[in-house]
Design goal:
Elements (H helix, E strand, L loop, with lengths): L3 E5 L2 E5 L5 H7 L23 E4 L4 E4 L10 E3 L3 H16 L15 H8 L4 H5 L17 E3 L9 H9 L6 E3 L6 E3 L16 H5 L5 E3 L3 H9 L4 E6 L20 H11 L3 E4 L1 H21 L5 E2 L4 H10 L13 H17 L6 E7 L3 H6 L14 E4 H10 L21 H4 L6 H15 L14 E7 L2 E9 L1 H13 L6 E5 L17 H17 L9 H11 L5 H7 L9
Parallel strand pairs: 1-5, 10-11, 10-13, 12-17, 13-14, 16-17
Antiparallel strand pairs: 1-2, 3-4, 3-5, 6-9, 7-8, 15-16
Helix pairs in contact: 9-11, 9-15
């Protein structure tokens, strides 16, 4: 098909049919401001911040939705276009809370950035300021907080929840001045079919949706001399937190992260990778038990709490297919207040467990009534990557230039299999490395599952071919689960991650959470795995010692009591 030729700011450009004016401009190095536009979502064209002028017709066009046409002459810099953009931003600000200095998105707010770039002043805003919207806060849930008065009605959260997650938990309501993005019947997020995944927070350009912050609670614990504060860091954190300190996406800062955590005052510093290895042992043996008995197949992974909550709401009839193994976070916290407390001689009542997670759903998970097998609430606090970065910045630690230290030793041995938990396909590959060797004594050839995307694969173990699937994004998961429900699926294993591309794209990761950043984070985790001396969970010497000294056999009495859980059907 012939290309389309047009002129943008006196530059001739040829583009493929269907290319928007915004995309065409970017091809020749012209950046047009946007707010409602997001590269991973459908086009909306509601904010009109991206308008350009059609020189031939003198019309203003929303460049993010209008497609290029042959012979167009476009100006992105005309006074008509520039004034319209400023006016649209001024109108948004006229009805926006004036609390930038105390807003959680201060410094990472796209509305704030565009205001600065367009040169909008306080006087410009004040001439339009009138009655302010006064919607109530939604802060009753454990994971996400909604502040509707900061919403600019861009619709990004609506689109990501419907298009990527398939939930449509939020939508537009009301008209005119009273327009709002809200839930059905204006219920709190904690009372609806919301997975707590936080993808809405990652695409929100302002502070209208954020995680429920637990930074102050963690500071109080660190300052309490009667508490022994233990911290665990999820695999994906080491390849993402550096972005908060100016390092390129995918920069591995594992040793520097450990140093920073000790400087903050944590008494025990560990990686969740230790219990990711443990999860593989328990989940792997559970898979073996099921395939040998040909029961409750396919087995579906259970390490993602957003996916678990989604399944409880939408697929309660399939809960028996979920592995009963706890997530690595919950396994670690349970062991911290049992095995670890016993080893170091500390009263478990004094141990305060903190998780550093790329995920907002982990905040929901820690409050589940099922997770008290230690005799206490197993996980006391969960911080997102962003929250930990704020703590490090608050005390003036320059993470990028710290020396490197190692995790504590008692539960500090980690395998490469545990590292790749942080990306789509990683859990599956880690599990199959162990399952094949346990069944046959032969190592698994690398599956080359890839670091991103959804796919199916086949692997032969002991003369039997197993069909496996890996999906991320709940809308993609629904397609596979509907086949399981209908009995048309002959899969043996399904890995589900709620967030697109897995934990590297979690709802608590640094912003912006772009596809390019997710790819680089995932590549970094794959590189760590490639260079680890131990790449199989069952070869981790600390895991072997844990079973010998404390747990007994995989799936045995004590292991089942401490490391496995149950699920509950929830109303839709």
């Amino acid at each position: 098909m012939n290309k389309i030729a047009l002129t943008i700011d006196d530059q001739r450009v040829e583009v493929e049919p269907g290319t928007t004016l915004l995309e065409a401009a970017r091809q020749i190095g012209i950046e047009i401001p946007t707010l409602c536009y997001h590269p991973d979502l459908s086009l909306h064209g509601s904010c009109r911040v991206c308008v350009v002028e059609d020189v031939n017709t003198k019309r203003l066009l929303a460049s993010c939705v209008v497609e290029a046409a042959e012979g167009m002459v476009i100006s992105t810099r005309s006074s008509h276009a520039r004034r319209a953009r400023r006016r649209n931003v001024e109108l948004l600000l006229a009805n926006h809370p004036n609390d930038c200095l105390s807003c959680e998105r201060n410094g990472s707010c796209e509305l704030q950035e565009i205001t600065h770039k367009l040169g909008v002043t306080k006087e410009d805003v004040e001439r339009f300021r009138g009655k302010q919207r006064d919607f109530p806060l939604d802060e009753r849930g454990p994971a996400l907080r909604r502040e509707p008065n900061k919403c600019i009605l861009c619709g990004r959260c609506v689109r990501v929840c419907e298009e990527v997650q398939g939930l449509a938990a939020v939508d537009f309501a009301g008209r005119g001045f009273n327009s709002i993005v809200t839930t059905a019947f204006d219920l709190p997020l904690s009372e609806i079919n919301c997975a707590s995944c936080g993808q809405c927070a990652t695409v929100c350009p302002t502070g209208a949706i954020t995680e429920v912050r637990e930074v102050d609670a963690v500071w109080r614990a660190l300052e309490d001399e009667d508490k022994f504060v233990v911290v665990q860091t999820a695999p994906a954190i080491q390849a993402s937190i550096g972005e908060e300190f100016g390092l390129p996406a995918g920069t591995v800062v594992t040793g520097k992260l450990v140093t920073a955590l000790r400087m903050l005052g944590f008494d025990g510093v560990f990686s969740t990778e230790f219990t990711a290895d443990l999860t593989i042992i328990e989940e792997g043996w559970e898979f073996i038990d099921r395939i040998q008995g040909n029961k409750r197949l396919p087995i579906i992974t259970s390490c993602c709490p957003g996916w678990i909550k989604y399944a409880e709401h939408n697929y309660p009839d399939l809960l028996e297919h979920l592995s009963t193994a706890k997530s690595p976070q919950q396994m670690f916290s349970t062991l911290a207040k049992t095995y670890y407390a016993e080893r170091i001689g500390v009263d478990p009542e004094k141990i305060y467990t903190v998780s550093i997670m790329p995920c907002t759903a982990k905040k929901f998970e820690k409050n589940r009534i099922e997770h008290r097998d230690s005799g206490f609430q197993d996980t006391d606090a969960v911080l997102t990557t962003r929250e930990l970065a704020d703590m490090i910045k608050e005390v003036g630690i320059d993470l990028a230039h710290l020396h490197e230290e190692d995790y504590d030793s008692i539960m500090g041995s980690l395998s490469g299999a545990a590292t790749i938990f942080g990306t789509t396909g990683g859990v599956t590959e880690a599990a199959l490395r162990t399952v094949k060797e346990l069944l046959t004594g032969e190592p698994l050839d690398r599956l080359n599952l890839g670091i991103l995307g959804n796919r199916e694969a086949e692997v032969e173990i002991a003369g039997r071919t197993y069909r496996i699937a890996m999906v991320s994004g709940l809308a993609n998961a629904a397609e596979v689960l509907n086949q399981v429900r209908a009995g048309t699926c002959d899969l043996d294993w399904i890995e589900v991650m709620a967030c697109p591309h897995g934990c590297v794209g979690g709802g608590g990761q640094p912003l912006p959470n772009s596809r390019e950043q997710k790819e680089k984070r995932a590549q970094a985790l794959a590189s760590i795995d490639e260079h680890k001396s131990i790449r199989k969970s069952h070869e981790n010497p600390a895991i072997k010692k844990l079973y010998e000294d404390f747990l007994g056999e995989p799936l045995g009495g004590r292991a089942h009591e401490l490391l496995h859980t149950s699920y509950q059907a929830r109303p839709r």
